[in-house]
User: Fold this.
Amino acid sequence: MRVDDGIVFGSDDASAACTSVAWPGQCCSERCEKREGKEACFHDVSGLRRASGARRVHYHERRGERKRFILLTNTYGTLQSLRYSASSMLPPPPPWSHRLFTAGVTGTNGKTTTTSYLASALGCLHGPVLRITTVGSFLGQEKIDVADDYDGFVEAMKRALDVGAKMAVLECTSEALAVGFAKAWPISIGVFTNLTRDHLDSHGSAEHYLASKAQLFVHLPPGGAAVLNAYDPASALLAEVIPKSVRTLRYGLSSRSSGPPVMDVDIAAERVIVGWDGTRVKLWPSSRLAGFDREMHLRAIGEVYAENALAALAAAMEAGISANDAVDAIEKTPAIPGRFEVIGAGPRAVVDYGHSPDALERTLATARSLCAGRLIVVFGAGGERDRGKREAMGRAARIADRIVLTSDNPRREDPALIAAAIRRGVGDHPAVSVVLDREKAIFDALGGADVDDVVVIAGRGPETEQVFASGARRLVDAEVARRALGELVRLDKHA
Assistant:
């Protein structure tokens, strides 16, 4: 069986205290042949169970399509893998660290937005909240200029404490968690957004990637709280390694899966409406929101941001913020630059950071739902990063009417070879071009767009530099899109 989306957790050897993971596009047959000498046992769930020796099989079908996600849990192997204790390469926390109530957000996609929503919600009662993300450190709305390393992190935390801050929200990357960050800094609330393929260049294997994410939850203290995505199958594994003394709250959107949630849902949406003016979320009156009859209007555009808002709402409630206060604050939170950032009105350009197959797919699905004309996408893939995801990125782009493959941050790789790898995933799509100069690719795509078309420029979001083997040059996708659209207006006036 070939898995085109999701991940397969399994084991070559039922007696092994570990798991193996196959990502989208990988074939299970090699593993199967080593064990059984045939492929047939991977063609159905019961055979998959026999071949792996797994005690349980969780089967997840997405959007009514063919088999797409199978999660096998070995007797104890998977849990042992997730419970590994990352050796801390960081110093012990300073003695004042417990004076800042800290929440951490991890997952493949949605960390920055969820962190921003949660910081806003906590700030409505607790004054300025420190927010540390991959796009910078902020105290309230003020950016803090600190080094992008652990010393800079500690400096930002101390500065926040010195001005009276009581809370901090951190974007916890898998790389930081892998070197023991969750052991080096006390975190009271852990939030999980989702798990899809990314960063295998850093982790070496999908097992290590997932186990690194799990560190945030393994090390939550007694009385802490875990907030899990009930529609992401990885949450079922995380739930089993969370300490018994930690509370768990589950949120989710059913649109992430065509199947049922993997666990009971506490915070959910009854309805989500996406428009060019933002995203409206009608909250489901669950037991945790009894009597709470309200619609949440987000400034960000896309169902994925509704999912992020639900995660932040759940975490804020666990921190003692009322649902009404949290929703008020989340509604006022500006959309994050480079996250479905809309430029122009016809044609529209959409600048988005999505650089994983799942993120690109969801961004394009949102654009398609709003697009009255053609959907055009301009994107590439980062050099010297997870090479295995490139074909999957190409497959995710097939929803577009026109695909323009270009450079992302090629670093020391040949941009043409990166584009060729993506092109293999695109397959027989009828409208594919390769324009390696990213600025020219954006100008060409917008120049060829009609008034009702939408051009998605994906992969780099708010990044300000494009990195090549020869060095870096300034390139901001939003700035290029504005210049390209301005040129169209100028040409129209002189037509």
Observations:
- The chain has 17 helices and 23 strands.
- The CA atoms of residues 464 and 479 lie 10 Å apart.
- The two ends are 56 Å apart (CA to CA).
